[in-house]
Structures are given as structure tokens and as C-alpha cells.
Amino acid sequence: MFNVLFLSILLFQGNFCRTAVSTSVVYDSKALVIDGKRRILQSGSVHYPRSTPELWPEIIRKAKEGGLDVIETYVFWNYHEPVRGEYYFGGRFDLVRFVKEVHAAGLFVHLRIGPYACAEWNYGGFPMWLHFIPGIQFRTSNNLFKGEMERFLVKIVNLMKDENLFATQGGPIILAQVENEYGNVEGSYGVAGVLYVKWAAETAVGLNTTVPWVMCQQEDAPDPIINTCNGFYCDRWSPNSPFKPKMWTENYAGWFLSFGYAVPFRPVEDLAFAVARFFETGGTFQNYYMYFGGTNFGRTAGGPLIATSYDYDAPINEYGYINQPKWGHLRDLHIAVKKCEEHLVNANATQISLGQNLEAHVYYKSFNDCAAFLANYDSSSNATVNFRGRSYFLPAWSVSILPDCVNVIFNTAKVVSQVTLDDDSSIWDVTMPSSSWSWYKEKVGIWSNNSFEASGLLEQINTTKDSSDFLWYTTSINVDEKTVENQTKEVGLLIMSLGHAAFLFVNKKPVGFSYGNHDDASFTLTAKINLHSGNNTLDVLSMMIGLQNYGPWFDIQGAGLYSVILMDLEGSKADLSNMQWTYQVGLEGEFLELENVSMANSSVWIQGSAIPTNQSLLWYKTVFDAPEGNGPVALNLSGMGKGQAWINGQSIGRYWSSNLSPSNGCSENCDYRGTYNAGKCLKKCGQPAQTLYHIPRPWLNPGKNLLVIHEELGGDPSTISLVAQNRQRICNRVSETDLPPADTWESGEDFASRIPELRLTCETGWRIASIRFASFGTPEGNCGAVKQGTCHTDVSSIVHKACVGKSGCSIPVSGAELGDPCPNVAKTLAVEALCTA
């Protein structure tokens, strides 16, 4: 009995540890070589603190189902070491748990330790205490900085080693990164920058991770460090050595969002074109930045003026739901590229001109055994080309993939994936918090005895040490009674600031507000003010909206006031900049910790039937019931001004609904053809950058929940609502002439004779509840606004039978299956469905 039990234990341990088998990772000129095999690898960035641990497995699972092999993440030094020598790896910052979740899903990890991250993250990921080490200079050949950086690198590498997380230990980490995009700024540091790159490379290699290291955007990355490309396109890029593989660490799926700017998006046709071109021209590893963007909770957003949403138009949206058609079209692309893997990693490309802006790259094993990519990189003209005795149609700005040099199984411009209509307000259930609000009025100016005085205007970041977004600048102006007529005097005030925003009060009354923008945080605030005889108080609340995270010497960029000029109507000026000023770091409400659940019943809160609205510096509090269901929840703050919101003591980020984007420059149906940039495709012009603020379901209690708002400028809390998504509109259009699904292709078959399919899929756990539209013929319009065309047959019953009650369905697009309402006409099947939880 003992022997049987002992044997059972050994067998269990053997099965449990099976995934802990050592994996070797090296590289050659073609690819990363994992356990002796060259690999084509699709990767996606998922930053663990931009979601919650409860959601990580689902996000990772969707990434895997989308065709990814690798999850890429930065490591965020400022939150892992908030105080020098004191480390934190809990909650959303449990790096070990995140890496293990990726491993459990069967994916690899690229760990970008940095420790500089950029990432639109506060201070680029550097801890603020680093700034205050005397004599330190960041990201250059400075011994103080190098000592701190090496100490953190050692900490993270040893943490991963202790948990057996490197591939050679049986873990998922196959790549590590030191520094980040330093090549973009290296020239600003001169010779010291060159020496720093050499030191960083030597230090990283010396840590003996037993997996390759990379440096992105670093043309002078020393051997054996692999230099990699970042950008919207990397097909024309090459590594700095013929012995290194062509790798792409940041392929921007969209772009980040800033307050006061329109919402950027990247058409999936262009993104797929960029990916296909990269693999066509010899690339073997590419990473989407971001694959899941998530949310900048709390004060994690970088700056200046980076918004709270980090959705990035990624294949998985901010709430963790699949963003269609981006996710599906890229999944089909990954399948097509993977079917070419053996050719791509074992052969060199033969480039063939097919005409102007037309070319083929062919990967031969033998003349009759090859894979090909046919590209039309013209931005406007479609083309028909001849390749190996056959004719192929190539839309402008597209790539066709032929795994057998005969059958096109994917074209980047032909999207047959469904569309998810997330912008439709009908998918959201709207509820209001309790109508019973309490409030607390913030004091203007100095509010405690921990204020201090100084001569002149102090730089804000060095003063607050980023412990708060806020710094009060307070002084007094004395007006001689003899010089004032009618007891008041009108003067002009000119305030100049390095950023990011400032609110002016004269004699405790609000007078003016001004702010910078993401591209230039500096601004001026001008106001005409009335001074009475005697003493007048001047209070300026300077506000930061995320510390700078990018650029040379970004760590010493300042914030706050640097000039205050008083001008009377006769033109004389008085410079108040060098006067004696009194300073107060932060707000009283922050000091009282009004956002915490423990303060919910404090007597400092005022209750009454008349809620003060459209007033500055007010804290509001109420309770609400968690919305029903398991779908995403958000707070609609469109009726508020600027501030921050907390749910049960957890900050869901900064909001700024009153800061509208420019009214022009948007194109909801942006032409994907031609070179993309971050300003090419924009939506929501003339609107706030963001009105919905994500509340993770795990942060909600089953019963009552506490909502606290700090409104800085003025808003109406009675307009605040909670929205929950418990249904989903999905739509698809597939033509008889479209390609059949790439995952149905098998080598050697006549793929062209297969029938296209229309596929619909609901979110995990949801099912198709109803068919809202179904037409086979010549339907008109795009998804969300599709209608019957002149040729139409009602296929609702067929679609209903195939789809309703199921999580997904597939319908052959063929007249033989659906009927033929108009012979000799190419027909399309269009279906819109409703999914419910």
C-alpha cells in the first residue's frame, strides 16, 4: 500500500512538474531558436497593473486564442520600489503572479525590465526618490544612477530566478530587455550616452539570465544584445548585425489618448498590412503595442495630460472584451503567417518585381515547395498581377499570403471578421447612484500649519515630490487706500507656468483657469482682477496631470509657476515673482483622506437637499448598488469638469470632461491606404477625450458601494451615472467572392473552391439572443447601419436556426445554401445579432 501511494505521489509530481522542463533559447540570423527550432512568434503587450489580477487569466486566454505566442510587459520600478529599499509586489503589481498566469496559459514572456519604461506611465516608471539623490543624472554614464539601476535589475532578475521563471529553468521568460528606446535620445547625452549603452549591455549580460537580451530602438546595441525596431512599420528595417534576427518590439495597434485631444484609431487593414510586410521581408518576431491597453488607474498616467483610458484601439479593449474586427482579422493573419513558418525560418526570400509598387517575396524549399507574399504598396491603385502563371488581384495597400505559392488564404485588405458595435449606447444599462449626496468644501489657499514660506516661486515637482497633484502658491498684495478710487482698483495679472494647469483665486474668489496640453505643457494665465484697498490675497492652485515620461532629460522637466506680473491700467508693471510666497502641498481633502471608506461616515461631510453644483474644489460622496450582471462597468462623468474619482477607496483615475478636443480633423471612416501616423485617423472631435471611466468588477461589493468625487473646476454630480454592459451588438458581412477562412486551408487542396463562411461569436459566457437583421443579396451600408438592397432574400429563419442560443455560429455564404435571389450577381450575406449574458 505504501509503495503504491509513493508511486502515485511520484507520478503526480511528475505530471505537475512536466511544464518545468528546461527550454533553451538562443538566436541566429533568421529567428529566435527555442529548443533547437527556429520560431515565428507573434507577441502582444499586456501591462499587469493596467488591469486587475482577477482579469489577467481571461485577457491572456483571449490573447492566446487571437494567435499570440508571447506576452510582453514592462516592469514598473516606481510602484515596485516606492521607497528606496522597500519593495511591493502585491495586488495589480504582483509581477510573479502575472508571469505565472502567462505560463499557465502556455505562452512565453518577454520581460522588459528597463527599468526605464516610458509607456505613458508616470515619470517613465522611475521612482521619485531617485530624483532627489544628490548628484544623480538619469540614463547616462552617472555612477549614482548606474548603481541604483543595477540594483533594481538584480532585484528583478533574482526574483524571476528564485521563482524558476526563466525558460532555462522551465519558466516562460524567453527574452529580457534592458533600457528602452534610448537610441531616440542618446545624442543629447553625448559621449556619456554611448558609454551608458555599453555599460547597460554589459550589466544585463552579466546577470546571466540564460535568455537573450534586447535593446529596442538602439542601433549601436553591442553584441550579443539584439537591437529591435519600434514603429508603425518595420518592414524596411534591419538589425545592426547579420547574425541577429529581425525583431519588432512595438507595433502600435493604435495610439494613446490625451486630455483635450480627439481619439486616435488605426484601421485594422493598415495594421495587418504592416505585419504582413514585416514577415514578408524576413521578420520573425513582432509585438503589438498594445494588445490589451487597459486603464491608468490612480495617478499612474504619465504626462503631461495623458488620459485615464489606455485603450490604445487594441485588439482587446479597455474592459477586457474583444475589439472586433481588429482581433479577428489579426487572428486570421496570424494563422496565415504560421502556415508559412517552415518556409520563413528555413529559407531566404527571393524578391520579384511585379510592377510599379508591386512585388513578391518567395521563400523556396524547392521550386515546387514554396510560400509567397504578394504586395501592392501603392496607396491608391488596385492591381492584377501575374505570379507563377496565375493571375491575382491585389487591392491597394495590401498583402496576399500564399502558403503554397498557389492559394491566397489571406489578404490584409479583405476583412471578413465580425464587427462589434461598442459605441452603440443601447448596449449599456444606465443606473444612477443614490440621489443622496454629501459634500465637503475644500479651503482655498493655506489650510494647515505644515505650510511654509520661501522667497520667490518654487518649482512644483521638487516641492511636492509628486506626493500630490496640487501645490498652493499664496501671497498678498497691499493696496494703498490713497491710490484707490471707489475702494477698488482694476489691474491685470499675467501668470506664466511650466505646466500643467492653474486655478487663480483673488480674495478667495475664483478668477481664472488655464492649462497646457500634451505637446506643450507650459501656458499663461491672464486675468483682469479687482483689488480693494488694504490687503488682498492671491492664491494660485497649480495642478500637475502626470509627470513627463519621455524625451531627453525628461526627469528634470519642471512644473508650476515661474512668473507672476501685476499690471495696472496705466501700463506700469510689478513683478511679484520674487516676493515672499507661502506654500501648501496638497489639498485638505487629501490630508483627511476623504476618499477612504473609513471616512464615509465622518462628520466633516455636509448633507442637504440642495447639492452645490458648478463650484470649484468640492468633494462629493454617495453610495450605489453594484449593477447586475458580470459585464463591464463604467462611471459616466460627462457632466463633470475636472478631478478624480474613487470607488470603495480605489482610484479609477483622473477625469477632465470639460476639456474638449478640436472640432475638426476627424474621420470616422478613415482611408486605411497609405502611410499611417498618430494623427491620421481620429474620432470624437469637439468632445471630451473620455467620459466613461472603467470600474473593475472586482472592486465592487455585492451590496452598497462608496463613490467619492473630487471636482476641481465645477460640475453637477446629479448627472453622474453608472453604465453596465450586459449585451452586445455584433455584425458581419461576407461575400460569395471573399476568401474562405484561413484556418480551413490544408496544403495540397484546391482552396479556391471552398465556400466562404460568415462567422459570429459572442463574448465569453454570452449567447446569441436574437437576429436583428439578415439579408442575402446586395445589402447596403456598413455594420450598424446595414439595410436591404435591390436584390434581397430573407434568410432570418436560416440564421436564427444556426445561431440563436449559441455562443457562436458559422454560415456558408453560397446561393446553394441560402437561395439565389438574383442569378449572375455576386451576393453578400449580412447579419446583425444581439448577444446577451
Give structural attributes.
alpha+beta; TIM Barrel; 5 domains; eight-stranded parallel barrel; six-stranded antiparallel sheet; 47 strands
Task: Describe it.
The strands form eleven sheets. This protein has an eight-stranded parallel barrel with strand order 4-5-6-7-8-9-10-12, surrounded by four helices. The protein has a six-stranded antiparallel β-sheet with strand order 33-22-34-40-36-37, with no helix packed on it. The protein has a six-stranded antiparallel β-sheet with strand order 23-32-24-29-26-27. Mean pLDDT is 94; it is low at 1-19. It is α+β, with helices and mostly antiparallel strands. The chain is globular. The two termini are 50 Å apart. It is built from 14 helices and 47 strands. 16% of the residues lie in helices and 32% in strands. It has five domains: 2-321, TIM Barrel, CATH 3.20.20.80; 347-408; 425-441 and 591-725, Jelly Rolls; 452-550, Immunoglobulin-like; 727-836, Rhamnose-binding lectin domain (RBL) (Jelly Rolls).
**Helix segment count?**
14
Which structural category do the helix and sheet elements fall into?
alpha+beta
The average pLDDT value, as a whole number, equals 94
As laid out across the biggest beta sheet, the strand order is 4-5-6-7-8-9-10-12
CATH architecture of the largest domain: Alpha-Beta Barrel
End-to-end separation in angstroms reads 50 Å
Q: Helical percent range?
A: 10-25%
How many domain modules? 5
